[in-house]
Amino acid sequence: MLAYRIGYGEDAHRLEAGRDLWLGGLKIPDALHGAVAHSDGDAVLHALADALLSGLALGDIGQYFPDNDPANAGLDSATILRRCLELVRGRGYAPLNVALVVTLDRPKLGGLRPDIAASVAELLTLDRAEVGVSFKTSEGLATGHVQVRATVLLGRADG
Ligand code: C5P
Ligand code: MG
Predict the structure, then answer these.
(1) CA 131 to CA 119: how far, in whole Å?
(2) pLDDT at 2 over 70
(3) Residues flanking ligand 1, CB < 6 Å
(4) I want to staple 11 with a disulfide (CB 3.0 to 4.6 A). Which of 46, 121, 129, 133 is the partner?
(5) Pocket of ligand 1, candidates 137, 139, 147, 149: which has the most ligand atoms within 8 Å of its Cβ, to mutate?
(6) What is the pLDDT of residues 39-49, one digit of tens each?
(7) Which segments within the chain are labelled E, that is strand?
């Protein structure tokens, strides 16, 4: 068993006016548009869930939560992330730190960095200092969508 394993995940959602924008378990205040999705469309939590699974070569969230299964309609992204965390823990690993890059043109999110980090940290039972959050614009190339990239370092729980 490796002492450490890296996981990486991505997610993107189209944005539409009149929808809520959720990122990292937080509803973004004053968002002009939100993700088009079956559930809350939280691209941070979806990218993180995939990062957790990929770190242990467990596939991706589509395998565990197919979006054509009515049982998964409206499934809370925090629930998806928690279940992926259980899978990781079940294999004897735990996340040590995570790094997130959120690409979104508007609104500017810098002021929410501590809140998003705290929310993600709570979901993963990490310290806030173990959750890095970076924001990027697409420089106007992709104003209609939000993109998230997530890396996670997993360590042996008994190590
Ligand atoms: O994409 P660009 O490099 O021009 O972004 C400049 C800075 O704007 C970023 O480093 C980040 O601090 C901030 N930003 C933000 N919220 C966004 C996008 C970028 O706070 N939605
Ligand atoms: Mg730039």
Answers:
(1) 10
(2) yes
(3) 104, 108-110, 135-137, 139
(4) 46
(5) 137
(6) 889 999 999 99
(7) 4-17, 22-23, 26-27, 33-35, 93-103, 131-136, 145-156
